[in-house]
Amino acid sequence: MNPSTCPLCQQPNHCALSHNRDVQTCWCYQQVFVSKSSAVQQHAALKDVQHCICQRCAEGLRQEVSLRIRRLD
Fold first, then answer.
1. Among residues 44, 50, 42, which one has the least CA distance to residue 18?
2. How many CB atoms lie within 10 A of CB 62?
3. Rounded distance, CA 71 to CA 30, Å?
4. Consecutive 10-residue runs of the chain (73 residues): their mean pLDDT?
5. CA nearest 69: which of 35, 38, 28?
6. SS3 49
7. What is the rounded distance in angstroms from the CA atom of residue 31 to the CA atom of residue 54?
8. Which pLDDT score, from 0 to 100, does residue 62 have?
9. What are the residue ranges of helices labelled H in the chain?
10. How many CA atoms, within 13 angstroms, populate the side-chain half-sphere of residue 23?
11. Would you say 65 and 16 are in contact if contact means Cβ atoms under 8 Å apart?
12. Phi/psi-derived region of residue 35, left when phi > 0, alpha when psi is between -120 and 50, beta in every other case
């Protein structure tokens, strides 16, 4: 999979590192994320993924975990 693509929605993840830019310029630099284990519980597809999800999917995961929504897909 392309490291510039979100593994969940297949849209551009806008990762600064995948475009050879400084990490401090990335949208995710100041964000708070759910733990990897919580993310994998929500989306099994994230188990072996080694590149970034997009901002929209990160926010969706954060909301699902905080509301204790369990995905079935």
1. 50
2. 16
3. 26
4. 87 90 90 77 74 89 79 55
5. 38
6. coil
7. 12
8. 86
9. 36-42, 55-66
10. 4
11. no
12. beta
Residue 27 carries which side chain, given as an amino acid letter?
W
Tokens of 46: 């994230």
Structure tokens, 60? 């969706």
Instruction: For residues 42 and 22, give the distance between their C-alpha atoms in angstroms, rounded to a whole number.
Output: 30
Chain CA centroid to CA 34, Å: 9
The C-alpha angle 46, 47, 49, rounded to 5 degrees, equals: 60
CB 51 within 8 A of CB 1: yes
Specify the amino acid at residue 1. Answer: M
**pTM, two decimal places:** 0.75
Structure tokens at 30: 């100041």
